[in-house]
Amino acid sequence: MINTVISKQFIKNNYGLRRVRSFVRRQRRLTKKQQLALDSYWSLIGIDYQTTVIDINSVFGCTAPLILEIGFGMGSSFVTMAACNPQQNFLGIEVYTPGIGACLIAAYEIGLKNLRIIHHDALEVLENMLPDSSIDRLQLFFPDPWPKARHNKRRIIQISFAELVKNKLKIGGIFHVATDWHHYAEYILKIMSNIAGYHNLSTNKMYIARPDSRPLTKFELRGLCLGHDIWDLMFKYKE
């Protein structure tokens, strides 16, 4: 695996240049099993970052609807979705190396053929690697809310990001976001409601109930047990 979470032109003394990043490069020691997975399975499931557009059908070896998930964490729900939907292709982007290792283990152990992973900054992947009008559904579940006002600029969902996603979605494609921070949900709703081309799939133009397509994660279940609410937002791209 080529470990290039951020392109070299954006790095100086471990700090990004020019662009505000929506993530922190968390450092945690890999387990022996995770390291073995990176060494053994990356060539089978992983896709190294590049600055040129990839051929999605060639990457998966077939033509099928493409589901892109940004920030899949440890990958349990992502792997579950791919296993339950063999008729679709699942591409995940993650910067957390232990999560990459855990996802590789889970995907390899059940022999998934419709799942691929990229270890890099999602913005650069969207800008440089993925063709326009190629994604059927983009999933962004529980992104960092950056709740302090001075950090709001680090939230991944900004007008520019939503416009970029729109360019990558097929007509009729879905952008699905879930968060457990109400203020972030309101912020997302405000941004998405003011961008031409997005149609809110909620009947009241607010939030939707958790769809069956999004598995209940351990993180979400723990939050629900603590009394936390979850907000799902789903938008369809229409010209």
Verbal overview:
The chain has 239 residues and is of the alpha/beta class. It has eight helices and ten strands. The protein has an eight-stranded mixed sheet with strand order 3-6-5-4-7-8-10-9, sandwiched between helices. The protein has a two-stranded antiparallel sheet with strand order 1-2. The longest helix has 14 residues, at 32-45. The chain is globular and about 45 Å long. The model has no long low-confidence stretch (mean pLDDT 89).
Helix content: 25-40%
Stretches where pLDDT is under 50 for at least 5 consecutive residues are: none
Return Rg in Å: 17 Å
- For the biggest β-sheet, the strand order reads 3-6-5-4-7-8-10-9
Provide the succession of SSEs.
Answer: EEHEHEHEHEHEHEHEHE
Class based on secondary structure composition and strand pairing: alpha/beta
Percent of sequence in beta strands = 15-25%
DSSP E strands, number: 10
**How many separate helices?**
8
The pLDDT mean sits at 89
* Main β sheet profile: 8 strands, mixed
User: What is the terminal separation in angstroms?
Assistant: 38 Å
Categorize the overall geometry: globular
What features would you highlight for this structure?
10 strands, 239 residues, alpha/beta, 33% helix, 8-stranded mixed β-sheet
Q: Could you outline the blueprint of secondary structure elements for this entry?
A:
Elements: E1 11-12, E2 15-16, H1 32-45, E3 46-47, H2 56-60, E4 66-70, H3 76-84, E5 89-93, H4 97-109, E6 115-118, H5 122-128, E7 135-141, H6 159-168, E8 169-179, H7 182-193, E9 198-200, H8 218-225, E10 231-237
Parallel strand pairs: 3-6, 4-5, 4-7, 5-6, 7-8
Antiparallel strand pairs: 1-2, 8-10, 9-10
